[in-house]
Structure formats: C-alpha cells, structure tokens
Specification:
alpha/beta, 14 strands, three-stranded parallel β-sheet, 6 helices
C-alpha cells in the first residue's frame, strides 16, 4: 500500500507556510508565494531524507577524523513545469547534489472548456535503480502526475518514487494509487482537500499555483 505522509496533519511551523500560500491577501505578493513554496520544499526534503539509505564515511577535520552517516545515493528531482519550479528549488536547496529532471505538462482546453493533459518536453538523467522525487505543487486529478511518471519510466525504472505536493485532492490521491507501484511509492503532502470543481481545481485549495508564482498565462 502506498504510504501517505500528510505533514499538515500535525501541529508545526509548516502549517504557517501552507496557510500563507492559501491566503488570498498574501497571494498578491508573488515573491512571497514563491518563497513559501520554496520553504515548504525544504521541509519536505528534510523529512524525505530520513527515509533514504545511509553509509558511514570518514570526514577529515582540521584536528582529526570523524565517521558520519551520509546519504548513500542522491535522489533525482523531477519537476512538472512551470508551477513546480519554486517547490523544486526548495528540495534542491537541501538535496544540493541531486540530479534533476524537468517535464512540460499542461492542460489543453477545447472550445467547451474541457481539457486533456499533454506532455511535450522532458529532460532527465537515467533513472534505473535511483530514488525519484516527482514534484508538483497541486495534485488535483492526478493525471499530470501519472503522465509524468509514465514519461519518466522511459529513462528506467526507479527503485522508489516519492510524490511531493503542497495540496492534494482526495480524488487525485485515489487516482494515482491505481498507477504507481504501491510498495515503491510514498506521497508527501501539506494538506488533503476533499473537493474538486467542474474545472478540476481543488477546493478550498489555493487557485492556480503557476499563475500565482509567475503571472497569468494565455489559454490555448
């Protein structure tokens, strides 16, 4: 069964950052919105680091040597563009030796307002036997996450997948559980919301994370 870690369920400073990215007044400051996503990413990186494999290494100081447990293999950070960039930076601040992958996934709308998820670009190192962290700030329907995962599998099967989002819908979590290997997948979240609108936005959610971070875009 897929393990789900909802950091917002416990009392901590983490919830201050989640509350600020939700707050319609604070959202007016795009720089603060990006920085809060970055801070959320840093906290999630620290928590994920506790689950990785470690090995003893000798560190030489000016006065001698000391053995320390250090991460055995760095993960690969894979981000869904464009909204995932600030959250990605937060994880990269802590996993600063990690390799990185980027995927362009977007909603292509039709005249009736319906949409399909499309992927038109991917850049990634080889993933066979690696720990893969897939980053997307909003896990709404889960379709972008599943398509990104399928695209990344062309670079080899990871040994473990960590899915990282700030806010997820209950429907999105249910959807991705159908497509990810349960014994090799963990989900890390800041909050779980129960409702999706007809346009597949999470309620109460926070709105469009990409627009809030980088400005509005034209719809195709």
């Amino acid at each position: 069964m897929i393990k789900i870690y909802n950091l917002g369920a416990a009392n901590s400073l983490f919830n201050q950052f989640i509350s600020e990215i939700r707050n319609v007044d604070i959202q007016n400051d795009a720089m603060r919105f990006r920085r809060n996503l970055e801070r959320i990413g840093e906290i999630l990186a620290y928590e994920i680091s506790k689950t990785l494999s470690y090995e003893k290494q000798t560190v030489t100081t000016p006065l001698g040597e000391v053995e320390m447990n250090l991460v055995k293999q760095q993960p690969v950070l894979a981000t869904i563009l464009r909204a995932g960039l600030p959250l990605h930076q937060g994880l990269l601040n802590y996993f600063d030796k990690a390799e990185n992958a980027f995927i362009s996934a977007f909603r292509k709308h039709d005249m009736e307002g319906n949409f399909d998820i499309q992927i038109d670009y991917m850049s990634s190192p080889m993933l066979k036997g690696r720990t893969l962290i897939i980053i997307d700030p909003m896990l709404a329907t889960g379709k972008s996450m599943v398509l990104a995962y399928k695209a990344l599998l062309t670079m080899g099967a990871p040994k473990h997948i960590h899915i990282v989002s700030t806010i997820a819908s209950a429907d999105g979590i249910e959807y991705i559980q159908k497509y990810f290997p349960p014994s090799k997948t963990s989900i890390w979240l800041g909050a779980i919301d129960q409702e999706l609108t007809a346009q597949s936005y999470i309620v109460p959610g926070l709105g469009d994370a990409g627009d809030l971070a980088f400005g509005p875009k034209l719809q195709e």
